[in-house]
Amino acid sequence: MNLNFMPSRQLALYAGKMFLTRSFAVLMALVLVLMALDLLGESGKILKVEGNGEAELWRYVSLRVPMLVSRFLPFSVLLGALIAFTSLNQHSEVVSMKAAGLSAHQILAPMIVASLAVAALLFMFNETVVVKATRTLNAWESEDYGPIPPDSGILSNVWVRDGEDLVRARLVLGRGKGARLRGVTFYDRDYGTLARVIEAERATQQRGGWSLEKVRIYDARTNMVLRQGSIQLLQGVEPQRFTLAQVDPAERDIHALRGAIAELEQAGRPTEEAVTGWWHKISGPLSTMLMPLLAATAAFGLARSGKVLLRATIGMALGFAYFVADNFSMALGNIGAYPPFLAAWAPFFLFLLIGELVLIRQEE
Fold this sequence. Notes:
The chain contains 9 helices and 6 strands. By secondary structure, it is of the alpha+beta class. Helix 1 runs parallel beside helix 4.
């Protein structure tokens, strides 16, 4: 058995370079097209805010592009691998490699190594750029593209229940004793019936409760609107109720998410979604390693047989099936139907086995 998976350094560099250039070319084309379509839909909402202009459009692009890159990089790797394998097959380069004594795994090895490097880069990109962009963009959208304070701990669109009453904060800034609320709406319910709606521009902590400022009160019983400078509400509602009410794994890096999970466990809150998201921060980038394996069906078989397009279609179908299975498994993990580890890793290992089975069958 030949355990040297890359016997030729020059051939490995050739295959790896072909795979990477095509993958990143596909990624660039996808991001440009999707960003243009997204900007067409959002530019009207951004520009209708007084004071917003071209700078805000570019700011939206700078926040949205990292999210698109993170989401579509594995798909671009799949298409890049299919294009590279199809090209190698059509020019009979795969036949030459096999005639030189290379196995299917040796032909595939350079692309697997390159995809592992892409996975490492994607993980670092997600942890350093994407989480910040996602958090800032979500907060900006919750303010309808109005001005938001530059705060690294922004949470947006947070709901908290206080007995029968409901509280919504458009923005939660800071943590612990320094927590502040922006865009507060308090729904005062009496035996299941809405009695008052209290809106405030901001809320700060006071001893035993919160001080709401610039208040507008709608009384459903009298159908009247009153305005007050400030009122005291939410007695006994701790700031942790707001900071733990919404733990979005996409908005936190892996270390911050681990801390939030520990806080949720101490508070006796459900942790399934957060734990599933934590595991998926690792399994998600590693999905790029699967793409060359799933696309490898396009590399083998004679080009003159006329089945190259069919083989490429099968490889694309396998890749799409992985993305569907991954999203479905994550949804089940978020609601607690699957254990978090299984929800994040089951699709990865399942399609790893499927890819290996297909490759071994082709090798035979």
